[in-house]
Each structure stands twice: as structure tokens, then as C-alpha cells.
């Protein structure tokens, strides 16, 4: 049992969060994670309208009586979704936990806080984490360069970013990007975080609503099988390496503009990947941690395994190392 300021503040049993995932984080997945004692999050913008989000929240509530939340990703867009209406749907539905992500959560935090919603803000740099803390968020999730999705433009991996954030913040820090097992959880705690958030690992579980072929593709893939796209546009995204992402990266790095890749990166194509199970149908998001993923467990199996592994490391493996270190070194060696 690992309890700390984060689990207390968010009312969860284990310090394990399922990050928001477009097209993946539906009520089934969020409820499965929450039922297993973690924090499941529904992705707001996977739902086409605020009313659909309200319905999805109601569906999740039927699937679990444990705390769950909603991820609201705020991205720059030519025709932005009605964020204020999504925010109101979250508040009206009585959800008490929100993960904000994508850009400055300032326009939303005050309304959430006034409604008694706890805010976990996800970002990719210490300066943005400090800014979010000044807005009174309740915790910060920090995504290292290895993460799936948008790692930002600083390219600082978790091994440096997590302790750098923990050193500067007083609110709990959740380590995100590259976590899949008990070793990762213990490492995150050692680096000063209060818990872990996982995207790719939860995407490859029984309850994840994507096609079985894609889960199996994740199991087969190595840590080298991701591609960074949109680098020249300063909107970097880490996605699965496939024929489409390699083409996008090549067009943009040789001077192409967004217009030249618009059709290749269309969300509708990416969605087909998950629906049809064709990993080359479009752009889809995945992290380097896929190289550590070897199976497709239920969320309950996964969370209990992570806790079991973490406990064994903390109570057996590391103490045994300390004992060895304090034993006298035999002469002549
Ligand atoms: C398929 C997929 C879709 C994602 N979509 C979103 C999203 O819409 N909003 C968001 O804030 N993060 C999104 N993420 C990022 C995750 O919430 C999380 O920060 C990231 O996966 C952590 O890295 P990991 O995959 O190594 O665990 C997505 C990740 C995946 C794998």
C-alpha cells in the first residue's frame, strides 16, 4: 500500500493514473482503472459534443463507484472545440477530478476550483509546472521526452525532468512518460514524484477499446519504434513509426508545410487504425515504453502486478543491496 499526499488529495487507493488518451480513454477503460484502485480518466474531446461527454460520464458512473476524472486537452486549433461548454458539462456532471493538458489551463482552473473540482495539470516543463502551481492546481503531472503524444520542445527526459519539477513544486508531482511496471513506480518515487501516470501501458490492456491487432503491434514493437512528427512546426508529437509517420516527418523536414501533410495526419485516418486494426492506416500515438510491454493484461492485473513488483523492490531487492554494501569487502578483491 503506497499512500501519500497525492492519493489522499485525490481520494484514490494507489498512486497510478491513466492519462487522457484521444479515442482510447472511454468510460470502459477509465472505470476499469478506477475499479482497480487507480485514477481512470475519460478523454473529453473523444466525445463529439459536451452532451456526449455528459452521457459518457454517466455511463462511467454506472461502471464504477470509485473516483474517476476527465481529461480536458486544450490545444491550439484553427476552429477550437467549445472548451467552455465541455468544462461546464464536466462541472454539471458532478465529476470531482480533472486532468488539464495541452496548454495554459488558466482559463479553466478558477471555474473548476470554484465548483470543488480537483485539478491535475499535465505539462512538459518545470516552468509550466511552476506556473500551473501558481494557478492553484492540486497536483502536476510532468511528461518526460519519452512520453507518447506531445513531449514539448525541450527534449528533457524524465530522469532529469521529474526531480527538477519535484525540487521546485510543493504540490504533488505525478511522473508521466515511460512508465509500465513496478520498477518505474519505485524509480518515480525515488525521483521525488508521488505517483505515476501511464498512457501506452493502459492502451495495451484488455479493457482498452482499440483493435486487438494494435495491442499486439505494441507488444511486438521495440522502444525504437516511435517517430517524432511536427518538429519543424514546434508542435512535436511522438507517434508510432509507420509508413505514414515516416512520410510526414520526411515531408516536413525537407521544407514542407502543414498543408502538405494535412491529409496524412487527419484524425479520421488515425481513428481507423484503432477501429480496423491496421497499424499503417494513419497516425497513432504511442510511447517509447512500448519496448517494455510484453502482454495484454486486464487493468486490475496490471495494477496489482505493478504494486507487487514495487513492494518486492522496496522490501527485498534494495534492502538486500544495502546489506551487501555494508558487509566487509573480502581481502584481495
Ligand atoms: C493513444 C494516446 C492518445 C493520447 N491522447 C492524449 C490526449 O488527448 N490528451 C493528453 O493530454 N494526453 C494524451 N496522451 C498522452 C497520455 O495521457 C500520457 O501523457 C502519455 O501517454 C504518457 O506517456 P506513456 O505513453 O509513455 O505512458 C495520449 C497518449 C496515447 C498513448
UniProtKB/TrEMBL annotation:
Signal peptide: none annotated. Keywords: Dioxygenase, Flavoprotein, FMN, Oxidoreductase. Gene3D superfamilies: Aldolase class I (3.20.20.70). Coiled coil: none annotated. The keyword Oxidoreductase applies. Pfam families: NMO. It comes from the Bacteria. One of its GO terms (molecular function) is dioxygenase activity. PANTHER family: 2-NITROPROPANE DIOXYGENASE (PTHR32332), 2-NITROPROPANE DIOXYGENASE-LIKE PROTEIN (PTHR32332:SF20). This is 2-nitropropane dioxygenase. It comes from Micromonospora viridifaciens.
Amino acid at each position: 500500500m503506497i499512500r501519500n499526499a497525492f492519493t489522499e488529495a485525490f481520494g484514490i487507493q494507489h498512486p497510478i493514473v491513466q492519462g487522457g488518451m484521444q479515442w482510447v480513454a472511454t468510460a470502459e477503460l477509465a472505470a476499469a482503472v478506477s475499479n482497480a484502485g487507480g485514477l481512470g480518466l475519460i478523454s473529453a474531446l473523444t466525445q463529439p459534443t459536451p452532451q456526449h461527454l455528459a452521457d459518457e460520464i454517466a455511463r462511467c458512473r454506472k461502471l464504477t463507484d470509485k473516483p474517476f476524472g476527465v481529461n480536458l486537452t486544450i490545444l491550439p486549433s484553427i476552429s477550437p472545440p467549445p472548451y467552455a461548454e465541455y468544462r461546464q458539462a464536466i462541472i454539471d456532471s458532478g465529476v470531482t477530478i480533472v486532468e488539464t493538458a495541452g496548454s495554459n489551463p488558466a482559463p479553466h482552473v478558477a471555474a473548476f476550483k470554484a465548483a470543488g473540482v480537483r485539478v491535475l495539470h499535465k505539462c512538459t516543463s518545470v516552468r509550466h509546472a511552476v506556473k500551473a502551481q501558481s494557478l492553484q492546481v492540486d497536483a502536476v503531472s510532468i511528461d518526460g521526452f519519452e512520453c507518447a503524444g506531445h513531449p514539448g520542445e525541450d527534449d528533457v527526459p524524465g530522469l532529469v525532468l521529474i526531480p527538477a519539477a519535484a525540487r521546485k513544486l510543493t504540490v504533488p508531482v505525478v511522473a508521466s512518460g515511460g512508465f509500465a511496471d513496478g520498477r518505474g513506480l519505485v524509480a518515480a518515487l525515488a525521483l521525488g514524484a508521488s505517483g505515476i501516470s501511464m498512457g501506452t501501458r493502459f492502451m495495451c490492456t484488455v479493457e482498452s477499446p482499440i483493435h486487438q491487432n494494435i495491442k499486439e503491434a505494441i507488444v511486438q514493437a521495440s522502444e525504437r519504434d516511435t517517430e517524432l512528427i511536427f518538429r519543424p512546426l514546434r508542435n512535436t508529437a511522438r507517434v508510432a513509426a509507420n509508413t505514414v509517420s515516416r512520410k510526414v516527418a520526411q515531408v516536413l523536414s525537407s521544407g514542407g508545410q502543414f498543408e502538405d501533410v494535412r491529409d496524412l495526419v487527419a484524425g479520421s485516418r488515425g481513428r481507423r487504425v484503432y477501429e480496423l486494426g491496421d497499424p499503417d492506416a494513419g497516425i497513432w500515438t504511442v510511447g517509447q515504453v512500448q519496448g517494455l510491454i510484453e502482454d495484454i493484461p486486464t487493468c486490475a492485473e496490471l495494477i496489482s502486478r505493478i504494486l507487487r513488483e514495487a513492494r518486492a523492490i522496496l522490501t527485498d531487492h534494495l534492502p538486500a543491496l544495502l546489506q551487501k554494501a555494508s558487509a566487509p569487502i573480502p581481502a584481495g578483491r
